[in-house]
Amino acid sequence: MTQARPIWRRVAVLAIGGGLAFWLANLAISLTPLAAEYRAALSISYVPMLGEALVGGLILGCCVAYALVRRGARVPVKRPVLTAIVLSMVALTAVTLLIEVPAKFLTSLGDPVRYFLIGTLFNLVRILALGAVVGFLYDSRGGLLGLSASPARRGDQLSGDLGHTTVL
């Protein structure tokens, strides 16, 4: 009998962990003078920015976690932490191209290159933190929750299909 193992539980736990890492990195960055200058130049309010960072981190965390759980074996890196970081770099590229470039270069912002580089650096730190935590939580050897779906590390899968458990 084959029973579907719910991947959404794993994805939710990984996304929450990654989202919190993203938010904590954002909180640490937001306390710097460079972040204060960046917020002032772009007219970003502090408290709403913290809430938006939490929501954005959860969304990115969900995307990275889902990709790691469902497609992690197809990424050419063998370690879950490195795989999650590679997936996070893909997310960073998408965020940069879809959000940062239009926000900085298609508006009447003074010195757009400077603020584009600052925003990209902030996103790099936040998204790297997200990827590292998602990978750490996914890794059954180093993670706290043992959420790895790798057949080599789990004894409950015989066929190697992600998301299916064989019961004898």
Short description, anyone?
The chain is mostly helical and 168 residues long. Helix content is 67%, strand content 4%. 29% of the residues are buried.
Description:
This protein is mainly alpha-helical. The protein has one domain. The protein contains 5 helices and 2 strands; from the N terminus they run E-H-H-H-H-H-E. The chain has a two-stranded antiparallel ribbon. Helix 1 runs antiparallel to helix 3, helix 3 packs across helix 5 and helix 4 runs antiparallel to helix 5. It starts with a strand and ends with a strand. The C terminus is likely disordered.
Which characteristics define this entry?
168 residues, mainly alpha, two-stranded antiparallel ribbon, 67% helix, disordered C terminus
